[in-house]
Amino acid sequence: MNDLIGTGVALVSPFNEDRSIDYNGLQRIIEHTISGGVDYLVVMGTTGEAPTISWKEQLEALSKTIDMVDSRKPIVFGLGGNDTYALCKKSQELSDYPIAAILSASPYYNKPSQKGLIAHYEALADSSSIPILLYNVPGRTGSNIEAATSIALSQHENIIGLKEASGDITQFEKVKNNVASDFLMLSGDDSNTLETIRMGGHGVISVVANLLPKAFSQMVKLALSGQFDAAEVENKSMELVYRLSVMEGNPTSIKTGLTSAGFIKNYMRLPLTEGSDSLKNAFIEAQT
Predict the structure, then answer these.
(1) What is the count of structural domains for the chain?
(2) I want to staple 257 with a disulfide (CB 3.0 to 4.6 A). Which of 115, 165, 225, 283 is the partner?
(3) Where residue 107 sits, what CATH number does that domain have?
(4) Is 21 left (phi over 0), alpha (psi -120 to 50) or beta?
């Protein structure tokens, strides 16, 4: 899946004051990220606030995103949850949409065993006509997809890669060293993207790329081409924004940054709330 090497942007879902999806704002972000050089777009992930967006709204947002992108970049759709059979059914509903892959976070709250995780992902991959990207984010789901589990799942013909957001670089390296060279290894943390590419990773699904697509994409391109000194310079230039983008959680922080830059309105859906004025001011200062 060469189309998914490089920088994927985990798109935010802008809202209007009534908390309906702001499609004008979404188009501004899409144009900003595509012109900035991102390689693909991820719709309805955690950064897109998918847990508080109904399935009907998610499909509408996907359809509108497909129209806005107009085949200029591949699109990945986020589909996670803790009911395996419900996810399998939803994956089949996606079969007519022109998307490159499904990004699926491991089941939350249930805390399945590693055996359960394997059975869950195999069921999803078997039911879906669209390739699956594993997504390991234990800080949100409450369970870790261990390296041995990711390695085992990499053998499934419809599981094409892993977004690793455990923060454990050693785990990333262990998986990378024990899977096929074409199994996509993607960072889920902006701040350690450069380090994971040094280990042979293929790129990142980024939050910061919503705001700084040009600089972030350039850093990734330099790293993937082996120009690590130049990539390090770009990486250091974004360190403050990395910190700000997690200061009040995701997606609250990045949406505050996008508000400070004039792309969207600063609205969230409960239980998330808008970022603080102090964070907004910090973003403004970081961009001046």
Answers:
(1) 1
(2) 283
(3) 3.20.20.70
(4) beta
Cβ–Cβ contacts within 10 Å for residue 3, how many? 13
pLDDT digits (tens, 9 = 90+) for 208-261: 999 999 999 999 999 999 999 999 999 999 999 999 999 999 999 999 999 999
Alpha helices in 102-168 (DSSP H): 114-127, 138-141, 147-153
236 occurs within a structural domain = no
Residue 268 is assigned to a structural domain of this protein: no
pLDDT of residue 1: 59
pLDDT band at 32 (very low <50, low <70, confident <90, very high): very high
H or E segment at 133? strand 132-136
Report the predicted TM-score, pTM, of the whole model to 2 decimal places: 0.95
Residue 216 near residue 206 (C-beta atoms within 8 A): yes
The percent of residues above 70 in pLDDT, for the chain, comes to 100
Where b means 16+ CB within 10 Å and e means fewer, 84-108 reads: beebbebbeebeeeebbbbbbbbbb
**Sign (positive or negative) of CA dihedral 270, 276, 279, 281:** positive
pLDDT of residue 55: 97
**How many other CB atoms sit within 10 Å of the CB of residue 72?**
12
Is residue 10 assigned to a domain? yes
**Number of CB atoms found within 10 A of residue 2's CB:** 10
- Give the whole-angstrom CA distance, residue 277 versus residue 172: 36
Instruction: Report, as an integer, the average pLDDT of 252-278.
Output: 96
Tokens of 272: 């998330």
Q: Which domain holds residue 96?
A: 2-225
**Does a structural domain hold residue 272?**
no
- pLDDT above 90 covers a percentage of the chain that reads 94
